[in-house]
Amino acid sequence: MITNVKYSLFGIVLLILFWQLLVMIGTAINDNYVYTQITPVNSIEALWNLLFEVKFYEHVFASLYRIIYALLLALLIGIPIGLIYSSNEKLRKIFYLPFQILRMISPLSWMPIAVLVYDSWDGAIIFLIVMAAVWPIIFNLSQGMAKIDIGWIYVAKSFKANLFNQLRYAIFPSIAQDLITGLRLALGVSWVIIVPAEYLGVTSGLGYAINDARDTLNYSKLAALILAIGLIGFAIDSFLQKLSNRYKWN
């Protein structure tokens, strides 16, 4: 445990040194005042100041609301589709290519369609996140289903278990880790999408805050917001990783 903390701290120190080196190189190539604002010291100081701003937490909660809402929708869509898709070999053969094509489309390319379809910016943003998040859930769920021992299903049926009880006691405990892994991947993609998506006319969220900091030429605050996004994303992912380890099967 202590050794892991030491390695983590050493990695953070290396990251800060590399960051400072890039700033120095940028200043040497192009003597721009922006570089003086985005040094590690100024950025960390700006991040500390953000922690005492109520508006910062409003932006964080706005982004988290959109992320959580979209992930819940992605789960509601992805779990049934994943179960049906993986339960029949013919269905897998039919839908494999269409699903792969849709998965490869950049979620942000749906932006013009989302703006046309939804009458609110929040709806458009949530749609973009769902389009990014649903595929890791479907394919990881399918991967988990492929590893289930069919004998467990037969045992459940021998005890007269209905479909609900089969899902509850045989299937979901077996695929829980794969489902959480899919959720982690979905969260990672969603956290990347949320920033450019929040450029879409909204007046709240971390993406909006970054855009506002850029427009007001407050680059130290912009760097601080980028750091905050990384730290919040890491915290959520760490929680899901611990949850995934809890359901690890031998």
Automatic annotation (TrEMBL):
Annotated InterPro entries: MetI-like, MetI-like_sf
A single cellular component GO annotation: plasma membrane
Classification via Pfam families: BPD_transp_1
UniProt keyword annotation of Membrane present: yes
Domain ABC transmembrane type-1: 60-240
Transmembrane segments: 7-29, 64-85, 97-118, 124-142, 185-210, 222-240
Recorded superkingdom: Bacteria
Alphabetical keyword list: Cell membrane, Membrane, Transmembrane, Transmembrane helix, Transport
SUPFAM superfamilies, per database record: MetI-like (SSF161098)
Main location: membrane
Membrane topology according to the record: Multi-pass membrane protein
Any GO BP: transmembrane transport
Subcellular location: Cell membrane
PANTHER family xrefs: ALKANE SULFONATE ABC TRANSPORTER-RELATED, MEMBRANE SUBUNIT, TAURINE TRANSPORT SYSTEM PERMEASE PROTEIN TAUC
Record family assignment: Belongs to the binding-protein-dependent transport system permease family.
Annotated protein name in UniProt: Nitrate ABC transporter permease
Native source species: Aliarcobacter vitoriensis
Phylogenetic placement of the source organism: Bacteria, Pseudomonadati, Campylobacterota, Epsilonproteobacteria, Campylobacterales
